[in-house]
Design goal:
Layout (H helix, E strand, L loop, with lengths): L1 H7 L2 H18 L5 H25 L11 H24 L2 H20 L7 H27 L5 H24 L1 H6 L5 H4 L2 H24 L5 H19 L7 H27 L1
Helix pairs in contact: 2-3, 2-6, 2-12, 3-4, 3-5, 5-6, 6-7, 7-10, 7-11, 7-12, 10-11, 11-12
């Protein structure tokens, strides 16, 4: 039960976000302060648990108070634990505006979807959901570290940002496919429910090509070595294969392990390369 909460309680997802911040640091060859990782960890925990509790309240999982359900009670304690950490680290990093921007976008995004009656009949919002989540992840795990490094947003950085967006878009699409059956039942319009397999394959291949092109340009611009380029390309290909073969994944928990695990694995491989270069 405790191991399952490690995954369903978003700690695994938060660690994946921390891994992607480390990946940004490794790719850009810029040192990052330790409390930046605590900032990202707490931001993901607060954001995801707030979103979960809002959704639970909306669908009526608890009638009077969040504390009336043992299933939800521990989540409010998680919020109480991580929210002070988020405030303290954001003040230290001068990221107060960024925190409220990210949380505000999550809430606006949530209420926009709910006001659209669960996406019923609104085809465009299916794209907005996937693009919005991908942009938030790029903002937190790439833009904020770049801002912390005081690195200028030149064309080389934008190329890397495009690659990161493609990677997150594929992961978001992977989770859309996890929820496909439920979304079809609820008549929700998402990319997963709109696209047949041929169109889905074309989208996957398109994102892989854009990502590979971005990585190649970054390699040519000496923004990364050959091993880093191979690792990032492999991570995108792995997620693309997971999407294409998603029907063979039966357990919802396995989607989480594999989807977020692709972020952790790619970062570990880059870190190993960095250690080998120092030895």
């Amino acid at each position: 039960m405790r191991l399952r909460r490690f995954f369903t309680g978003f700690l695994y997802t938060a660690l994946a976000a921390v891994a992607m911040v480390l990946q940004t640091s490794l790719v850009l060859n810029q040192p990052i302060t330790g409390y930046f990782y605590f900032f990202v960890l707490s931001l993901v925990m607060v954001g995801y648990h707030s979103y979960f509790l809002l959704n639970a309240w909306q669908i009526g999982l608890y009638k009077t108070s969040v504390f009336s359900s043992s299933h939800l009670r521990w989540r409010i304690w998680v919020l109480l634990l991580f929210f002070p950490v988020l405030i303290a680290t954001s003040i230290s990093l001068n990221f107060e505006f960024d925190v409220w921007l990210v949380l505000g976008l999550l809430f606006i995004f949530y209420f926009a979807i709910r006001s659209a009656k669960g996406l019923k009949g609104v085809k465009g919002l299916g794209w907005i959901k996937t693009i919005g989540l991908s942009c938030i992840w790029v903002y937190v795990t790439f833009y904020l570290p770049v801002k912390h490094f005081h690195v200028s947003l030149d064309s080389k950085i934008w190329v890397l940002m495009v690659q990161r967006f493609c990677f997150f878009f594929l992961i978001a699409l992977f989770f859309d496919l996890r929820d496909q059956v439920k979304d079809l039942h609820d008549q929700k319009s998402t990319i997963a429910t709109q696209f047949g397999k041929p169109r889905l394959l074309a989208l996957i291949l398109g994102l892989i090509v854009v990502s590979a092109t971005s990585i190649y340009c970054s390699y040519q611009n000496e923004m990364m070595n050959l091993w880093s380029a191979l690792v990032l390309n492999s991570a995108v290909l792995i997620v693309g294969c997971l999407i294409y073969r998603h029907e063979q994944i039966k357990n919802r928990l396995n989607y989480l392990i594999l989807g977020d695990g692709s972020m952790i694995l790619s970062t570990v491989l880059l870190f190993v390369d960095r250690i080998s270069l120092l030895c």
